[in-house]
Amino acid sequence: MQLPYAHLNLWRNPFGTPPAEDIAQLLVLPNLSPLIASISKALKTLDKKIIIQFMGECGRGKSSHMRALHAHFSDAPYLYFPEPGLNHPDIPTPRLPKSAKLLFLDESQRIPWFTRQRLFAQKNTSLILATHKDHRKEFSLKHKSVTHIDVGELSPQTLRQIIEKRIQWAALKTPNLTITDELVHDLITLYQDDLRGMLGTLYELVQSMTHPGPIPLPSQHKHLLAPHSRHLKDRLLNP
Amino acid sequence: MAEISIQLDREQDRIYRPGETIKATVTVRTQKDLKCKQLYVRLQFQAHGRGNTTRQKIQEVSVFSGTLPPGIHTYQAEFVLPYGPYSYSGHYTNLTWEIQAYIDIPWAIDKKESTHFFLSNKGVLQPDMSQVIIPAAPDAHRQKSGTGMLGIAGLVFLPLTLFFLALTIFQNPSMCGCMGMSAVVTLLLGFFGTKRFMASRVVTQPHIHIDPWPIELGKPLNYGLSFIPGVDLELNSVMATLTVSEVVVNGHGTNKTTYRHTIHEETIPLTVKSHYTKGQKLEFKHEFFIPEHLPVTFQLPSNSVVWTLKTHIDIPRWPDWSDEHTLHVLPYYMKDTPQEQPSGPSW
Asked: For the whole model, what pTM was predicted?
């Protein structure tokens, strides 16, 4: 009897879904210190409040940025808004606290318009938002400035770091997997900045590995590609 | 900084069976005083893979609390292993057992270390079955009436939709497309909702028998189907399909995706195309053999291995009749003394 990934010196597939408590150690994020300093300052002073908006498509790391920041301000409420109109027994629509110095609002574009306007108009609350929709106009009407951060750009170096961290996290001893430049290039060509799509494909590629060595190239195993990426569909249709 | 290592009493193969005791020796090496709220040793498992990770703590003992002076400290912990879930390695899900040592350090990042072992389902002694949690047989009849109600609701709304469609054609022809679509949706709802109801007019008094219950790996499973045709009919086929699949869920809410991977599938034709007369009781039987190498049932949040038995009656020019039952499969139990098998459920 052998652990399922023992031949690769891993105890699990590194590209599966990690438990919530391990996510923080797998993040590869830009330096968040200036943001942390600004938030801390805003919390200390009564008059200066801060608004930070992380914007990007699904799976690009908005929530990861938010969670990394939230780790430094864990007393502040972190509210995730599920899609309205659908019943999510596992995720209830959160109740907005009556007063809070700092609020983390994930999927803020889903907050009903009137509630959002009321929330954005509050003078004593600093807001950290993850959104698909740009809220800058809404804030400018209220004469508030927003720190806007576009989440999505994924450089080959960052991608390599993400893959390496994942492998290290799943390692038993020294992992027998190698990451080639071709793999990183291939993933970026196929998925552009869709990290979730890349991880899905990497999961299948590792599953297919029977021997140690470099992770196979996704372009040579098209049947294993995670199919939900818009960029991937475009590329497969127009090679 | 502290270093933790864990040694198990069976370092060679790390294979254990339910009811056995696992002994872990936890060694903590510190170079300076280490304040720890608690030093826990835990018996736990993780179901991991493409779906959300499920981590479940089975037992936890606190072996130390206070300040650890510099040096090497050794602690022992013992746990009696439960009757499942068993270690499993699959495509979308895996189940890994572990002993974890966890130091809860105040005002600092906690320190933890885990070591894995196997909880094998081979050579397991027959447990006291009253201690094994076996789900009750599913109530198939309730599902049937539910779908029937949906169909009846569809049929009630259909004339209303058609009336409004006619009204729209005369009053506002530009809205015809929308109303037409709505009529089609209602019609489809009505069809799928009443499909089972219509099929049950032809397949009356269906009865499925599965024996034994629960089912054990490496043993036969007796399957029986009986029904009375409500009309003279010709059946294209009657099939029974036994399927074992991994079902995992990734994400939450609207980001939720379900992945399925079939591990084993066996379809048995119970009859060939033939003619049957109304009121004549039909009986079909088959003995499935449950291969011993297949995984046993496990159902955890977001990760499961599911056994199903599907019955499908293909009726020409009429909605087909089908029914699916989830089976509960246990390992092959070795018995000290022969025991009588409990009788299986009937639907």
From this structure: 0.74
